[in-house]
Design a protein that fits this description.
Blueprint lengths: L9 H15 L8 H11 L12 H14 L6 H22 L3 E2 L2 E2 L1 H5 L1 H24 L4 H30 L6 H27 L3 H28 L2 H4 L13 H9 L2 H11 L6 H13 L2 H23 L4 H14 L3
C-alpha cells in the first residue's frame, strides 16, 4: 500500500532540491573559491536572482518517488544528482554550440573563458556523482545505490552519443531523416528525463513492473518535451522559449525542418536548402522559410507528434497504477506546462 500523500507544492520541491545542491557546491577549500563561484553562477544559485530554469528533471524524479512513498525528501540526493548532471552537459553544450547567452544572461564560457568553463562542467559532473553517495547515508541498500549509479552512467553515455549525433549531422551536408532525428533526441533529451523518473521509482519500490512503467512514462514525456521545444523554437513566443532569435535564425535542423525536407518536392527542397545555406538570412528570408515549413505540413506534423507522445506518457503513468492523486495532479501540471503545443 502507498501512503496518503499531502498536496505537493512544486515551489517547495524546487527549494528543497536547491538546498541539497547548495550543500554540495559550498566552497570545499578557500583556494578554490573561484571554482565554486562559477558553479553557483551557472546554476543561478549565486544570489543574483537569475533564473535557473524550471528544474524539470529533479521535480519529475521527486514526484515519481513521492507518488509511491508519500514523501519526497529521501530522494533529494538523487534529484540533486540529476540536476547537476544536466547542467554539466549544458556548460559543455554552450561551448560546443558557441552560445553566448543562456536564460537571459551571459554563458559561463563567455565570462570566464573556455578552459575554466570546461573545468566547471567537469566539476558539476563529479559533484553529481558525489550526490548519489549520500543515498547510502540515508539508509538505501547498496544494491539500490549501485543500480542507480549504473543508470546514471548509462544515461550520461547516451547524452554524449546524442550530442555526437547532433554535432555530426549539423556539420554534414547530408540531410538527416526523421527516423534518425527521433533516435538522436531519444539519447540527448528523453534519456535523462526517463532516467530521472526511473530513478525516483527504483528508490521507492522493488516492483519491476512499476519501475518499467515509470521509465516508459519518462521516455515518452522526454520525446514530447523536445518536439514541443522544436515547435516553440519556430512558432512560439520568444518570451516562452527564452530563445532570441528563433531556431530559424540559428538555422537549426529541428523536426519541422527535417520533416519538411523529407516531404518537399525538388523545387521546394532546393529552395529550403538554399535559404538554410544563407549565412545571415534577412527577415524576409526567415519569413519565407517559415511559410515553406507551414505549407509543407511541418507545423501540423510536429504538433501532432507532440500530442501523440504526451498522450502516450499519460497512458503509461495511468498504467503504473500506484500514483497518488496529488502527485498525479502535479505531474499532469508539469506535462501541461511544458507540452503546450
Amino acid at each position: 500500500m502507498t501512503a496518503t500523500i499531502p498536496d505537493l507544492d512544486l515551489v517547495e520541491l524546487i527549494a528543497d532540491t536547491e538546498g541539497e545542491i547548495v550543500r554540495l557546491v559550498r566552497d570545499r577549500d578557500p583556494s578554490t573559491h573561484g571554482l565554486y563561484e562559477m558553479v553557483r553562477y551557472h546554476l543561478a544559485l549565486d544570489g543574483s536572482g537569475a533564473s535557473g530554469g524550471k528544474r524539470l528533471r529533479p521535480l519529475l524524479g521527486l514526484l515519481a518517488f513521492a507518488s509511491i512513498t508519500g514523501d519526497h525528501r529521501r530522494a533529494l540526493p538523487g534529484a540533486a544528482a540529476v540536476e547537476l548532471g544536466h547542467n554539466f552537459s549544458l556548460v559543455h553544450d554552450d561551448i560546443e554550440d558557441g552560445d553566448r547567452e543562456r536564460r537571459h544572461r551571459p554563458t559561463l564560457w563567455t565570462v570566464h573563458g573556455v578552459p575554466q568553463a570546461i573545468n566547471t562542467g567537469d566539476t558539476l559532473f563529479s559533484l553529481s556523482r558525489i550526490a548519489l553517495h549520500r543515498l547510502t547515508d540515508l539508509g538505501f541498500p547498496d544494491h539500490t545505490v549501485l543500480r542507480l549509479m549504473r543508470l546514471y552512467d548509462e544515461t550520461c553515455v547516451a547524452l554524449c552519443e546524442g550530442q555526437y549525433l547532433d554535432i555530426a549531422t549539423s556539420q554534414s551536408d547530408e540531410p538527416m531523416s526523421v527516423e534518425a532525428y527521433f533516435d538522436m533526441i531519444g539519447r540527448k533529451t528523453a534519456a535523462l528525463i526517463a532516467a530521472s523518473i526511473e530513478a525516483g521509482a527504483l528508490l521507492a519500490t522493488d516492483d519491476e513492473a512499476v519501475i518499467s512503467r515509470y521509465r516508459a512514462f519518462g521516455w515518452a514525456l522526454g520525446i514530447a518535451f523536445q518536439i514541443n521545444d522544436d515547435l516553440l523554437g519556430i512558432w512560439g513566443k520568444e518570451q516562452a522559449t527564452g530563445k532570441a532569435p528563433s531556431d530559424v535564425m540559428h538555422k537549426k535542423k529541428t523536426l519541422p525542418v527535417i520533416y519538411a525536407m523529407e516531404q518537399a518536392g525538388p523545387e521546394d527542397r532546393d529552395r529550403l536548402g538554399a535559404l538554410y545555406a544563407t549565412a545571415d538570412p534577412s527577415p524576409a528570408e526567415v519569413t519565407e522559410i517559415v511559410e515553406l515549413l507551414e505549407r509543407l505540413g511541418a507545423r501540423d506534423y510536429t504538433r501532432d507528434q507532440a500530442h501523440r507522445y504526451r498522450d502516450e506518457a499519460l497512458a503509461e503513468l495511468g498504467a503504473a497504477g500506484v500514483v497518488q492523486p496529488a502527485a498525479r495532479a502535479r505531474l499532469e501540471e508539469i506535462i501541461v506546462s511544458v507540452i503546450s503545443a
